[in-house]
Specification:
It is a single chain. The chain is globular, with a radius of gyration of 28 Å. It has helices at residues 14-26, 37-43, 63-73, 88-97, 109-137, 139-145, 151-165, 180-189, 208-216, 226-229, 245-257, 279-282, 285-291, 307-323, 332-340, 346-363, 368-378, 390-408, 413-420, 424-433; strands spanning 6-10, 30-34, 50-55, 79-83, 101-104, 170-174, 198-202, 234-238, 265-269, 294-298. Strands 2-1-3-4-5 form a five-stranded parallel beta sheet, with helices on both faces. Strands 7-8-9-6-10 form a five-stranded parallel beta sheet. Strand 3 (50-55), helix 3 (63-73) and strand 4 (79-83) form a beta-alpha-beta unit. It is an alpha/beta fold. The protein has three domains: 6-135, Response regulator (Rossmann fold), CATH 3.40.50.2300; 139-299, 3-Layer(aba) Sandwich (Rossmann fold); 303-440, no CATH class. It binds adenosine-5'-diphosphate (ADP) and magnesium ion (MG).
Length: 442
């Protein structure tokens, strides 16, 4: 979502304020003006959705003090300073304190527009990434991202809420793409450490020396060792099976030196497809015992039944919104194929297929079946799917049909009854059975 960006103009000279404001308004900016820094501080705080243009020479609080104050409120706020002609030392000082850029009087209006554009773009990016970070640290948002109502998913939700409150270390196991990283974030976000740091590193991505320096220091250019950075929060170790014997010993010492409950919580993720060895075989027993006291095992997608269709529907809706086109309609045959595919890449593969299906649909070519086929050829010989009872396919398909039809008719029960030729009572019963709520579609 593009947000509207404002330009706040601060200058004690009324003529100057008016002409800058007029010029920027003509270039399409929304402006607001303030006659003094003191006044401006009443309207501008952290997360201000815009940028600031300020004169340096003002009575009362001058531009430099104003800049320092703004930087202490929000160091990511772009502030453009207007300096006197030839006042190089002042310009240098402003940049040192954190100004975005400066304009020398008398300035070229085009240069002002150009700078305002650059600054508002930078601001938009900063605010977007702040919003994302906030969203990821908000437990309820992250829980609502977990799609699926299969018994395995319901159990997973309970486990996350329970273990999220606990302090002991956690081991997450499961095939690639099953949601291990997502669950690690969720465990942090729903618990008492949510406001503390979440720091992660892959044990497979670095050499032993690099990883050692990253985790325990001394880091390059005085970077804080990750075990320090994560203090009080969560340290996520991805690909724990790749941790060398030497580092396993250091990690164990670190764990043992922490009091009880541990100050820093460790979540270890095992990448199941990396090796044939069990984790018990690749980790020293004492470390395995510490990390694996609580374990979450994520089920492969092929064992989650109707979740597959729910995920496909939800994901293709998200992508079609992103790409501004219609979501593909799934036929009965395609639904059966989605349910029967082996999904070696699990949810990650499904995300990928949903995106490609939306793009295909936008171009008006291709089918979901051809995407599945191409994908399975690319991933080598097809794995055999665990057989499922016919009833499960039928129910999953029925649920998806009602879900899609309700969505299309924006929750109009009458329209859905008509289209699916169902009496009201049957429709109500089925919606209750599949846990579909009319209010979700209105
Ligand atoms: N239950 C789920 N509901 C919705 N999206 C999911 C779910 N599980 C995983 N995903 C998505 O699938 C992708 C892979 O998940 P990820 O956590 O990276 O898997 P892993 O770490 O096990 O390889 C991510 O885009 C993630 O957001
Ligand atoms: Mg991962």
């Amino acid at each position: 979502m593009a947000r509207a960006m404002k330009v706040a103009i601060v200058d004690d000279e009324a003529d100057m304020r008016a002409s800058i404001s007029q010029w920027l308004a003509l270039s399409g900016f929304e402006t607001e003006t303030y006659p003094s820094a003191e006044d401006a501080l009443k309207g501008i705080g952290a997360d201000f959705s815009g940028v600031v243009v300020s004169d340096i020479k003002m009575p009362g609080m001058d531009g430099m003090a104003f800049l320092k104050k703004l930087m202490s409120l929000d160091s990511g706020l772009p502030v453009i300073m207007i300096t006197g002609h030839g006042d190089v030392p002042m310009a240098v000082e402003a940049m040192r304190v954190g100004a975005f850029d400066f304009l020398e009087k008398p300035f070229n209006p085009d240069r002002m527009t150009e700078l305002a554009k650059k600054a508002t773009n930078a601001r938009r990016m900063t605010l977007d990434s702040r919003a994302l970070r906030k969203e990821l640290s908000d437990g309820s948002t992250i829980m609502s991202k977990l799609v699926g109502t299969s018994p395995a998913m319901e159990r997973l939700r309970e486990d996350i809420l329970d273990l999220g409150q606990a302090d002991s270390h956690v081991l997450i196991d499961g095939e690639t793409g099953t949601g291990k990283t997502l669950v690690a974030h969720a465990l942090h976000a729903v618990g008492p450490r949510a406001s503390k740091k979440f720091v992660s590193v892959s044990c497979a991505a670095w050499s032993e020396d690099q990883l050692s320096a990253k985790l325990f220091g001394p880091g390059e250019d005085g970077a804080i060792p990750l075990v320090e950075e994560a203090r009080g929060g969560t340290l996520l170790l991805e690909d724990i099976e790749a941790l060398s014997q030497g580092l396993q010993a250091r990690l164990l010492t670190f764990i043992n030196d922490q009091g009880l409950p541990p100050e820093t919580r460790i979540i270890a993720i095992r990448n199941q497809q990396a090796q044939d060895l069990t984790l018990e075989q690749s980790l020293r027993p004492d470390l395995f015992y510490r990390l694996g006291a609580m374990t979450i095992v994520l089920p492969p997608l092929r064992a989650r039944g109707e979740d597959i269709l729910q995920l496909f529907t939800r994901l293709s809706e998200q992508f079609s919104e992103e790409y501004g086109c219609d979501a593909p309609q799934v036929t009965a045959q395609e639904a059966a194929q989605l349910l029967q595919a082996p999904w070696p890449g699990n949810v990650r593969q499904l995300v990928n297929i949903a995106e490609r299906a939306v793009l295909q649909n936008r171009r008006g070519t291709g089918s979901i079946a051809s995407l599945l086929m191409a994908d399975n050829e690319a991933s080598g010989p097809a794995m055999t799917t665990e057989g499922k009872p016919l009833k499960e396919y039928v129910e999953a398909f029925e649920r998806m049909l009602i879900d899609n039809t309700m969505r299309r008719h924006k929750g109009s029960i009458v329209a859905v009854m008509e289209e699916l030729c169902l009496p009201r009572r049957t429709l109500n019963e089925k919606m209750a059975k599949y846990n579909l709520q009319r209010s979700d579609y209105v």
